[in-house]
Amino acid sequence: MSVKIITDSTSYIEREVLNDLDIGVISLYVSFPDRSIREVDIENQEFYEILKDQGIPLSSQPTQGELYASMVDVVSKGHDLLCILLSSDMSGTYSSACSVREQVLEEYKDAKIHILDSRSNSMQLGFAAIVAARAAQEGKPLEEVIRIAEDNIKRSRFLFIPENLEYLKKGGRIGGGSALIGNILKIIPILTVEDGQTAVLKTVRTKARAIKAMLEKMLEDNVKSAIEEVVVHHINCYEQAAQLAGKIKESLTIDVPIVDIGPVIGLHVGPGAIGIVYYTKDEVGL
After folding, report:
1. 3-state DSSP assignment of residue 68
2. Domain coordinates of the chain in residue numbers?
3. In angstroms, rounded to a whole number, what is the distance separating the alpha carbons of residues 82 and 228?
4. CA-to-CA dists, residue 55 to 36, 164, 170, angstroms
5. Which CATH class is domain 3-27+62-154?
6. pLDDT in tens, 153-187
7. Suppose 173 and one of 39, 61, 92, 168 were both cysteines; which one would form an S-S bond, judging by CB atoms 3.0 to 4.6 Å apart?
8. How far apart are CA 219 and CA 225, in angstroms?
9. DSSP secondary structure code for residue 63 in this structure
Protein backbone atom coordinates (compact mmCIF):
# COMPACT_ATOMS: atom_id res chain seq x y z
CA MET A 1 0.00 0.00 0.00
CA SER A 2 1.00 3.66 -0.33
CA VAL A 3 1.58 6.70 1.86
CA LYS A 4 -1.36 9.08 2.27
CA ILE A 5 -1.17 12.74 3.31
CA ILE A 6 -3.63 14.60 5.51
CA THR A 7 -3.36 18.30 6.30
CA ASP A 8 -5.73 20.82 7.87
CA SER A 9 -7.86 23.57 6.38
CA THR A 10 -5.41 26.37 7.25
CA SER A 11 -3.09 25.10 4.50
CA TYR A 12 -5.44 26.75 1.94
CA ILE A 13 -4.30 24.41 -0.81
CA GLU A 14 -6.38 24.88 -3.95
CA ARG A 15 -9.12 22.29 -4.46
CA GLU A 16 -7.74 21.11 -7.81
CA VAL A 17 -4.32 20.45 -6.24
CA LEU A 18 -5.89 18.57 -3.31
CA ASN A 19 -7.76 16.35 -5.73
CA ASP A 20 -4.80 15.75 -8.06
CA LEU A 21 -2.49 14.79 -5.17
CA ASP A 22 -5.13 12.97 -3.11
CA ILE A 23 -4.50 15.12 -0.01
CA GLY A 24 -7.05 14.81 2.77
CA VAL A 25 -8.16 17.88 4.72
CA ILE A 26 -9.43 18.17 8.28
CA SER A 27 -11.27 21.44 8.91
CA LEU A 28 -10.86 23.87 11.77
CA TYR A 29 -13.82 25.95 12.95
CA VAL A 30 -14.77 29.58 13.47
CA SER A 31 -17.22 30.09 16.35
CA PHE A 32 -19.66 32.98 16.63
CA PRO A 33 -21.95 33.37 19.66
CA ASP A 34 -24.82 31.59 17.92
CA ARG A 35 -23.01 28.93 15.86
CA SER A 36 -19.77 27.22 14.89
CA ILE A 37 -18.88 26.88 11.21
CA ARG A 38 -16.35 24.59 9.58
CA GLU A 39 -13.81 26.76 7.80
CA VAL A 40 -14.19 24.76 4.59
CA ASP A 41 -17.94 25.45 4.56
CA ILE A 42 -17.88 29.27 4.42
CA GLU A 43 -16.59 31.69 1.80
CA ASN A 44 -14.51 34.71 2.77
CA GLN A 45 -17.10 37.24 1.58
CA GLU A 46 -19.84 35.64 3.69
CA PHE A 47 -17.50 35.28 6.68
CA TYR A 48 -16.55 38.97 6.75
CA GLU A 49 -20.19 40.02 6.38
CA ILE A 50 -21.04 38.01 9.49
CA LEU A 51 -17.97 39.41 11.21
CA LYS A 52 -19.18 43.00 10.64
CA ASP A 53 -22.41 42.21 12.50
CA GLN A 54 -21.16 39.88 15.23
CA GLY A 55 -17.53 40.84 15.79
CA ILE A 56 -14.40 38.72 15.57
CA PRO A 57 -15.15 35.07 16.35
CA LEU A 58 -13.01 32.46 18.05
CA SER A 59 -11.26 29.74 16.10
CA SER A 60 -11.20 26.15 17.26
CA GLN A 61 -9.53 22.91 16.27
CA PRO A 62 -11.16 19.86 14.68
CA THR A 63 -12.95 17.50 17.04
CA GLN A 64 -11.16 14.36 18.17
CA GLY A 65 -13.92 12.37 16.47
CA GLU A 66 -13.13 14.00 13.12
CA LEU A 67 -9.40 13.40 13.56
CA TYR A 68 -10.04 9.77 14.51
CA ALA A 69 -12.33 9.12 11.55
CA SER A 70 -9.85 10.67 9.10
CA MET A 71 -6.94 8.58 10.37
CA VAL A 72 -8.93 5.36 10.48
CA ASP A 73 -10.18 5.91 6.94
CA VAL A 74 -6.55 5.74 5.77
CA VAL A 75 -4.97 3.07 7.96
CA SER A 76 -7.95 0.70 7.80
CA LYS A 77 -7.18 0.36 4.07
CA GLY A 78 -3.57 -0.58 4.82
CA HIS A 79 -1.95 2.75 3.92
CA ASP A 80 0.74 4.56 5.89
CA LEU A 81 -0.24 8.06 7.01
CA LEU A 82 1.52 11.40 7.37
CA CYS A 83 -0.50 14.23 8.94
CA ILE A 84 1.05 17.68 8.41
CA LEU A 85 -0.65 20.30 10.58
CA LEU A 86 -0.46 23.96 11.50
CA SER A 87 1.96 25.16 14.16
CA SER A 88 1.43 23.73 17.63
CA ASP A 89 2.07 27.25 18.96
CA MET A 90 -0.96 28.52 17.02
CA SER A 91 -3.49 25.75 17.66
CA GLY A 92 -4.13 22.63 19.71
CA THR A 93 -4.73 20.65 16.50
CA TYR A 94 -1.27 19.05 16.51
CA SER A 95 -1.52 18.03 20.16
CA SER A 96 -5.00 16.55 19.63
CA ALA A 97 -3.80 14.65 16.57
CA CYS A 98 -0.94 13.13 18.57
CA SER A 99 -3.43 11.92 21.19
CA VAL A 100 -5.79 10.53 18.58
CA ARG A 101 -2.88 8.75 16.89
CA GLU A 102 -2.33 6.73 20.07
CA GLN A 103 -6.02 5.78 20.13
CA VAL A 104 -5.92 4.64 16.51
CA LEU A 105 -2.76 2.60 17.09
CA GLU A 106 -4.47 0.72 19.90
CA GLU A 107 -6.96 -0.57 17.35
CA TYR A 108 -4.63 -0.78 14.34
CA LYS A 109 -1.42 -2.01 15.94
CA ASP A 110 0.53 -2.44 12.71
CA ALA A 111 -0.39 0.97 11.32
CA LYS A 112 2.25 3.59 10.59
CA ILE A 113 1.10 7.13 11.47
CA HIS A 114 3.34 10.18 11.77
CA ILE A 115 2.14 13.60 12.94
CA LEU A 116 4.31 16.50 11.71
CA ASP A 117 4.19 20.00 13.18
CA SER A 118 4.69 22.35 10.22
CA ARG A 119 5.56 25.25 12.57
CA SER A 120 3.49 27.51 10.32
CA ASN A 121 0.16 27.84 8.48
CA SER A 122 -1.31 28.83 5.13
CA MET A 123 0.70 27.76 2.10
CA GLN A 124 3.91 27.41 4.10
CA LEU A 125 2.06 24.45 5.60
CA GLY A 126 0.49 23.76 2.22
CA PHE A 127 3.77 23.42 0.35
CA ALA A 128 5.02 20.86 2.89
CA ALA A 129 1.87 18.80 2.29
CA ILE A 130 2.17 19.19 -1.49
CA VAL A 131 5.79 18.03 -1.78
CA ALA A 132 5.04 15.15 0.59
CA ALA A 133 2.06 14.08 -1.53
CA ARG A 134 4.15 14.23 -4.70
CA ALA A 135 6.76 12.01 -3.07
CA ALA A 136 4.04 9.62 -1.93
CA GLN A 137 2.66 9.38 -5.47
CA GLU A 138 6.16 8.50 -6.65
CA GLY A 139 6.03 5.51 -4.33
CA LYS A 140 8.53 6.71 -1.74
CA PRO A 141 8.29 5.11 1.73
CA LEU A 142 6.90 6.96 4.75
CA GLU A 143 10.30 7.76 6.26
CA GLU A 144 11.48 9.46 3.05
CA VAL A 145 8.18 11.32 2.61
CA ILE A 146 8.55 12.69 6.16
CA ARG A 147 12.12 13.81 5.43
CA ILE A 148 11.05 15.58 2.24
CA ALA A 149 8.29 17.46 4.08
CA GLU A 150 10.61 18.47 6.93
CA ASP A 151 13.23 19.66 4.46
CA ASN A 152 10.67 21.78 2.62
CA ILE A 153 9.65 23.49 5.87
CA LYS A 154 13.27 24.50 6.46
CA ARG A 155 13.51 26.00 2.96
CA SER A 156 10.23 27.93 2.95
CA ARG A 157 9.24 31.45 3.96
CA PHE A 158 5.93 33.20 4.61
CA LEU A 159 5.82 37.00 4.40
CA PHE A 160 2.57 38.89 4.86
CA ILE A 161 1.19 42.36 5.44
CA PRO A 162 -2.05 43.42 7.18
CA GLU A 163 -4.14 46.29 5.82
CA ASN A 164 -3.97 47.82 9.30
CA LEU A 165 -3.29 46.69 12.86
CA GLU A 166 -6.88 46.54 14.09
CA TYR A 167 -7.41 42.80 13.72
CA LEU A 168 -4.01 42.00 15.22
CA LYS A 169 -4.96 44.15 18.21
CA LYS A 170 -8.39 42.57 18.62
CA GLY A 171 -6.94 39.11 18.28
CA GLY A 172 -4.37 39.82 20.99
CA ARG A 173 -1.43 39.63 18.57
CA ILE A 174 -0.33 43.21 19.23
CA GLY A 175 -0.90 45.66 22.08
CA GLY A 176 -3.68 48.25 21.81
CA GLY A 177 -1.27 51.16 22.16
CA SER A 178 0.98 49.82 19.42
CA ALA A 179 -2.00 49.28 17.14
CA LEU A 180 -3.30 52.81 17.69
CA ILE A 181 0.08 54.43 17.06
CA GLY A 182 0.69 52.23 14.03
CA ASN A 183 -2.63 53.11 12.42
CA ILE A 184 -2.21 56.86 13.04
CA LEU A 185 1.32 56.89 11.62
CA LYS A 186 0.49 54.40 8.84
CA ILE A 187 3.20 52.08 10.08
CA ILE A 188 2.74 48.64 8.54
CA PRO A 189 4.59 45.56 9.79
CA ILE A 190 5.93 42.94 7.41
CA LEU A 191 5.16 39.76 9.30
CA THR A 192 6.67 36.30 9.01
CA VAL A 193 6.58 33.03 10.92
CA GLU A 194 9.57 32.11 13.07
CA ASP A 195 9.79 29.19 15.49
CA GLY A 196 6.12 28.47 14.96
CA GLN A 197 4.89 31.96 15.87
CA THR A 198 4.06 35.20 14.09
CA ALA A 199 6.99 37.63 14.17
CA VAL A 200 7.72 41.10 12.78
CA LEU A 201 10.39 41.05 10.08
CA LYS A 202 10.46 44.84 9.73
CA THR A 203 8.14 47.85 9.74
CA VAL A 204 7.68 50.49 7.03
CA ARG A 205 5.40 53.44 6.29
CA THR A 206 2.35 52.63 4.15
CA LYS A 207 1.16 49.38 2.68
CA ALA A 208 2.58 50.15 -0.77
CA ARG A 209 6.09 50.42 0.66
CA ALA A 210 5.53 47.25 2.67
CA ILE A 211 4.57 45.31 -0.46
CA LYS A 212 7.67 46.64 -2.23
CA ALA A 213 9.88 45.62 0.71
CA MET A 214 8.28 42.18 0.84
CA LEU A 215 8.98 41.66 -2.86
CA GLU A 216 12.58 42.82 -2.39
CA LYS A 217 13.08 40.30 0.43
CA MET A 218 11.79 37.50 -1.79
CA LEU A 219 14.11 38.50 -4.63
CA GLU A 220 17.01 38.72 -2.19
CA ASP A 221 16.32 35.14 -1.13
CA ASN A 222 16.10 34.11 -4.78
CA VAL A 223 19.64 35.38 -5.35
CA LYS A 224 20.88 33.22 -2.46
CA SER A 225 19.06 30.14 -3.73
CA ALA A 226 16.57 29.84 -6.58
CA ILE A 227 12.90 29.92 -5.63
CA GLU A 228 11.19 26.73 -6.76
CA GLU A 229 7.52 27.55 -6.11
CA VAL A 230 5.65 30.62 -4.92
CA VAL A 231 2.07 31.69 -4.25
CA VAL A 232 0.52 35.05 -3.46
CA HIS A 233 -1.95 35.04 -0.57
CA HIS A 234 -4.65 37.65 -0.02
CA ILE A 235 -7.85 38.37 1.87
CA ASN A 236 -10.44 40.25 -0.20
CA CYS A 237 -7.85 42.26 -2.17
CA TYR A 238 -7.55 40.24 -5.37
CA GLU A 239 -6.49 43.14 -7.60
CA GLN A 240 -3.50 43.96 -5.37
CA ALA A 241 -2.62 40.28 -5.25
CA ALA A 242 -2.81 40.01 -9.05
CA GLN A 243 -0.49 43.00 -9.45
CA LEU A 244 2.01 41.46 -7.04
CA ALA A 245 1.79 38.08 -8.77
CA GLY A 246 2.48 39.77 -12.10
CA LYS A 247 5.63 41.43 -10.75
CA ILE A 248 6.86 38.14 -9.30
CA LYS A 249 6.20 36.32 -12.57
CA GLU A 250 8.17 38.95 -14.49
CA SER A 251 11.12 38.55 -12.13
CA LEU A 252 11.14 34.77 -11.72
CA THR A 253 9.42 33.57 -14.91
CA ILE A 254 7.43 30.92 -13.01
CA ASP A 255 3.73 30.44 -12.44
CA VAL A 256 2.37 32.37 -9.45
CA PRO A 257 -1.01 31.10 -8.20
CA ILE A 258 -3.18 33.51 -6.21
CA VAL A 259 -4.69 31.86 -3.13
CA ASP A 260 -7.23 33.17 -0.63
CA ILE A 261 -6.47 33.02 3.09
CA GLY A 262 -9.52 31.62 4.86
CA PRO A 263 -11.35 32.64 8.04
CA VAL A 264 -9.28 30.86 10.72
CA ILE A 265 -6.05 32.67 9.85
CA GLY A 266 -7.87 35.65 8.33
CA LEU A 267 -9.63 36.62 11.55
CA HIS A 268 -6.22 37.49 13.02
CA VAL A 269 -5.09 39.79 10.19
CA GLY A 270 -8.33 40.96 8.56
CA PRO A 271 -9.42 41.83 5.01
CA GLY A 272 -6.85 43.56 2.86
CA ALA A 273 -3.98 41.36 4.03
CA ILE A 274 -1.56 40.24 1.33
CA GLY A 275 1.42 37.90 1.43
CA ILE A 276 3.91 35.66 -0.34
CA VAL A 277 4.83 32.07 0.42
CA TYR A 278 7.75 30.40 -1.33
CA TYR A 279 10.48 27.85 -0.92
CA THR A 280 14.00 27.84 -2.27
CA LYS A 281 16.29 25.09 -3.54
CA ASP A 282 18.50 25.39 -0.44
CA GLU A 283 18.09 26.97 2.97
CA VAL A 284 18.73 30.73 2.93
CA GLY A 285 18.39 31.76 6.60
CA LEU A 286 16.71 34.95 7.81
Report:
1. helix
2. 3-27+62-154, 156-280
3. 23
4. 14, 17, 10
5. alpha beta
6. 999 999 999 887 777 666 554 444 344 344 445 67
7. 168
8. 10
9. P
